[in-house]
Amino acid sequence: MTIEYSRELRQILLSGQGELHLAVIKWRLEKIYHLEVEYVKPRIPYRETIQKPSMASYRHKKQSGGAGQFGEVNLKIEPYFDGMAEPDGHSIREKEILELPWGGRLVFYNCIVGGVIDQRFIPSIQKGIMEKMQEGPLTGSYVRDVRVIVYDGKMHPVDSNDISFKIAGMMAFKEAFHLADPKILEPIYEVEIKVPEELMGDVVTDLQTRRAIILGMDAVGSYQVIKAKTPLAELDKYSTSLRSITQGRGSYSGKFTEYAPVPSEIQKKLGEEYKNIEVH
Question: Contact at 8 Å (CB) between 143 and 132?
Answer without folding.
Answer: yes
